[in-house]
Amino acid sequence: MKATFSLGHVAGIRIGVHWSALVITVVVAVGLTDRLPGALPGSPAWEYWLIGALSAVAFVLSLLVHELSHALVARRNGVTVDDITLWLLGGIARLRGEAPTPAVETRIAAVGPLVSLLLGGLFAALAAVLDTRAPGALAVDALASLAGLNVLLAVFNALPAAPLDGGRLLRALVWRRTGSPLRGTAAAIRAGRALGWVLIGAGLLLFVVGAFFSGFWLAVVGWFLVAMAGAEAGPARTRRLLSGVPVRQAMTPDPVTVPASLTVARFLAAPEFRHRHSAFPVVDEELRPVGLVRTATAADAPSTRRDLPVTSVMIPIDEIPTPHPDDPLTGLPAALDGSPAHRALVVEDGRLAGMVTPSDISRVSSWLASSAPWRHRAF
């Protein structure tokens, strides 16, 4: 799921918002604004709207804290987090690579619902304290509502179905029992699709009997679950296809390289770099990779910078995946997607051994799919 717009960075993690998160924000704001006048009459309309808007913002921040907890636990266990995208049912933390063990997967997945439960308890405690000092205040009702929403978020996300946190817990359980993370992924995806269709069916039934809003909302949530589970099936199928395949079987060996001392102007003018590739590895005098330069980026450089070395316009090596030729290929698609270079520089004994692009992985995947169709069956 791609973010519709960005909120910046928190703790070095890019935070994005999918358009569906705006739906839950509006629902919370409008729901409270419509309910409060009947429950606590007597206040001016602007106060109801203000409390509703602030409560919606507080709930979105609760979603963010939920997802940040996943990200921080993942970091503590050696898994890099590229970004977080908030969406209708919470959020998704995009990890660069997978959890190394079922235990780590369990810790990463379980912390989110636990944090939401803690937030629910915190909001409930604040509501109780405020109620003793200002009984009947609008803020008391808003805090109580936020407590209920966070508890509901925790319970719903704990359901054993992808892409929910409970789906990751199910994946970890199946992984632990079978020794196969791919089987765990397949089980979570099937459960996610099943739960989604159940919710869609229940929503349609409610719609027929007259509960239009509840039925519509349930069907929308079910549709998102089915769609998200399907979206996870593609990468999971790719990981299954690439299982057991080393990076060296996909890489282009000995790619054309650019010396780090070469100027931008010389790079653009040199015939060996024309019309061949859109990006080239940059190496130092000892042929160690230091980055990757895109032809388009170099061409966009202003004339005042063209006498500078290509290192001034390259993507540095620490932002590029650098697998060993014998590393498994399974984790590389996610790493390429999370890198601004969208390429990997394969390094062996400190020297550049090859380069891998998404096209290389697609080529290997297509060949494996045609030669080993059994690998598709789990999904």
TrEMBL record:
Domain CBS: from-to ranges: 251-308, 314-373
Keyword Membrane annotated: yes
One Pfam family, short name: CBS
Lineage: superkingdom: Bacteria
Cofactor detail note: Binds 1 zinc ion per subunit.
InterPro entries, per the entry: CBS_dom, CBS_dom_sf, Peptidase_M50, UCP006404_Pept_M50_CBS
Record membrane topology: Multi-pass membrane protein
Main location: membrane
Compartments reported by the entry: Cell membrane
Ranges annotated as spanning the membrane: 12-33, 45-65, 108-130, 137-159, 197-230
GO biological process: proteolysis
Cofactor: Zn(2+)
Family from the record: Belongs to the peptidase M50B family.
Protein known as: Zinc metalloprotease
Native organism: Streptomyces actuosus
